[in-house]
Amino acid sequence: MGANPLINLHNHTSYSDGDFTIEQVVDAAERGGLSHIAITDHFETRKVYCLQTAQFDEYLEEIQAAAERHPGVEVLSGVEIDTDPSRCDLEDLPIDLLNRLDIILFEYVDDSGSSLEELEPLLSQLRPLRGLAHMDIERIYSGREPDEVASRFRDFGMFVELNNALPYRRDGVPFYELASRYFEAFHGRVRVSVGADAHHSLEAVVRLDRPYRFLRNGGLTRDLLFHP
Ligand SMILES: [Zn+2]
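# zinc ion complex -> structure
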């Protein structure tokens, strides 16, 4: 493990719509030399097969057991929350359980889901690291200055993810690359993470050359979560 973190903080398992077990994903991360891996299954959404509140203890225990079997990688427990209120009962989420996690990803924020302002009552109760998953920043905030968007994310305490999965690209170009002028403004102000959003491939868990190249070329390596 070098000085720079090699993180992948967005992965699905058989607890939601992923194909592999927690053990398999964590094992792949350790073999691939990642410093940090987060398990972030969909939670209580009607959109996809997902982790249910009743499974929460079992889910955390399984993550903990995988962490103990794989001491070469730091394992974080997390979920991904769908912020569309027609699919997820955002006001009835089990806050105490969510506060046992290390990390929470929010999807569709400021887009087809809730705005950050609408989420604030929820966010104010949550202690884990919180971040914005697979945002199409350049489209969502078109017409807004990068500085303003950086302030917005910082004020709400959100990190922003470089999502490496194929659905989050336009003409083959990842959303984060299309938003490079926004990422310039995030430097020193908004933390960034890398997420494979792996569902169906263990290779995808560790094949992260493209987002890390983007971070290096943009001088953003120090903005990465867990950078010392
Ligand atoms: Zn996801």
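# post-check
The mean pLDDT is 96.
Residues 10, 12, 80, 133, 197 surround zinc ion (CB under 6 Å).
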